[in-house]
Amino acid sequence: LEEGARSCLLRFRLKLEEDIKPTYLMDHMISDGVMTVDEEERIRTQDQAGALIELLLRKDNLTYISFYNALVKEAYDDLASLLHRDLPHISLNPHKGSSDGSSRLSEGGIPQRPVVFVNRPELVNRAREKLYRLQKDPGWITVFGMAGSGKSVLAAEAVRDHGIIEDCFPGGVHWLSIGQVDKPDLLVKVQSLCFRLEQSLDSQLLHRPPNSLDEAKERLRFLMLRRYPRSLLILDDIWDSTVLKVFDIHCRVLLTTRNRSLTDSVSGAKHEVEVESGLDENKALEILALYTRIKLQALPEEARSIVKECKGSPLVVSLIGALLREKPNRWRYYLRQLQMKQFKRIRKSSSYDYDALDQAMAASIEVLPDEHRDLYKDLTVLQKDVKIPAKVLSVLWDLEPEEVEDILEEFVNKSLLFMDNNSKPYLYYLHDLQIDFLLEQNRTQLESLHTKVVRQYQQHYRDGPPTSGDKESLYWIQYLTYHMAKANLTQELYSLMFSLNWVITKAKIMGPAHLINDYVEYGFILDQENSEVRSQFQEFLSLNGHQLEQRPFPDVVQLALSQPPNSEVYKQARVQAQNRTKAG
Ligand code: ADP
């Protein structure tokens, strides 16, 4: 630990020891991988706060930073500001030889623990036991269970173990969120996985991204076999067995899914872990206790009924817990809300206790201040499994980044939104069931909600679309057409998609696969304006797909000039070429 940081800790030791509750802080620190479960246990049994400070003094800069971040997250703002001045500067050095493999977990994109977390040791052990079966041989582990039952949290927890990584997966663990994807989406995801894997090997070498799923599969096969032998891929939230075909490359895979039989169509050894839909009563009560900071034994009698009403669903209990943290005298009220089940609309998939989720969501949203409730409603238009950076919301909401930050923190604290802090900038997302809920609740306003997205984009980017490939711009490049189509803004969609400039921007940032998919997917809308032009664009892209994959990026205007002269693509290219000549 740096001298400055150490002296700061010593200086404010007494104050820290008086004020902090280590339990919550340590959860964050374990998530960050700077503290082991053993250390946590020891601190729990000793004079907690003092022991934690002792430990910090013995640890490194990263631990100090993690502790600081934990203070911020737990709203110890004044304590955090005391430590802030002496925060060490860290240079990210890949050879620092981390002691417990946890930095490797975050490199692999393994999500951290949720804000409030309870251990499910029996379940975790079952999962770890299956992981050990992959020690010698490749194969598949299917973690299956209902939505919101805690599959993703379990998958992350199962690999948070130094021994398993050492023994079974010395090649590392790599997490990929899949969700409901079509082929182009899947291709982009596999491309980004390959990119991640290649980058950490050798940043000098720039590989062209694979431009078809077949090619992606071969690239991945090579990487997993040659460069990352004995590593584990975690595929989160798989819906469709065709997705698995891409990963059927004789490697080690753990997948989470609601559909138990997905691996029927792939080859290799197969194992299963079933996640029960609800937590044991005691575990669920523990979540409520942790949120409300009441001792387990001292919980009011309503606690038990709440757990029973939602059948122990971790997601629902967390939502209610977050509500109670702020309104500790509303136990009875929330219980009654859960029991009322006023949203009783029959759902297609009735296998899950949606009523409980609806009630919990409705209650959580109700306690938001009016203006934040409207902002939350705006999230209805997000696609499932798409994670977005705060900047996108600052465009959508037309708010300063700092304000957005505060609002997002509020949503995250209420379990209304989840945060992925493995990437920079942080990304935010909703659980599938929450999107279902919002869609249901706002189903008469979808068009206007999507329209708002488009209008805000137009307002913010009135001088032209973003041209860099950073995460913030990526969202717009990828989903603008989707919002326009959903908003029924057909004019806007035509003029965007029938523009060579847009094609250049999107192809440069995302490659041609997504673009071509747009013309296919929205073909039925575009054709109402002009089916000729639509097919001219589509044809141009199909013919030049391989060129548009190349880096450095080709001169698209030149490519377009070889289209037939009656093609709209050609016409636009010619205007641009003439402008260039004029400009000299
Ligand atoms: P699934 O992948 O099955 O849909 P998740 O793993 O995403 O479900 O969990 C849904 C939510 O339930 C989490 O965001 C978290 O709030 C809560 N949750 C799940 N497991 C736990 C746990 N062990 N402790 C506390 N909360 C949990």
Describe this structure in words.
- The protein is an alpha/beta fold and 584 residues long.
- 59% of the residues lie in helices and 7% in strands.
- It is built from 31 helices and eight strands.
- It has helices at residues 3-11, 13-19, 22-31, 37-45, 48-58, 61-73, 77-84, 102-107, 121-133, 151-159, 162-168, 183-201, 213-227, 241-246, 281-292, 302-309, 314-326, 331-340, 354-366, 370-378, 390-397, 401-413, 432-441, 446-460, 471-486, 490-497, 500-510, 512-521, 523-548, 556-560, 568-583, and strands at 139-144, 173-179, 232-238, 252-257, 269-274, 388-389, 418-420, 427-429.
- The strands form two sheets. Strands 2-3-4-1-5 form a five-stranded parallel β-sheet, with helices on both faces. Strands 6-8-7 form a three-stranded antiparallel β-sheet.
- Strand 3 (232-238), helix 14 and strand 4 form a beta-alpha-beta unit.
- Helix 9 packs across helix 10 and helix 26 (490-497) runs parallel beside helix 29.
- The site of adenosine-5'-diphosphate (ADP) has 21 residues, from helix 10 and helix 17.
Strand content: 5-15%
Question: Helix/strand-derived class?
Answer: alpha/beta
The amount of helix comes to 55-70%
- Main sheet specs: 5 strands, parallel
**Strand order in the sheet with the most strands:** 2-3-4-1-5
Which molecules are bound in this entry?
A: adenosine-5'-diphosphate
Calculate Rg over CA atoms: 26 Å
Distance between the termini: 59 Å
Low-confidence stretches: 91-100, 342-353
Query: Roughly what is the average pLDDT, rounded to an integer?
Result: 86
Total DSSP helices? 31
Overall number of strands:
8
Morphology: globular
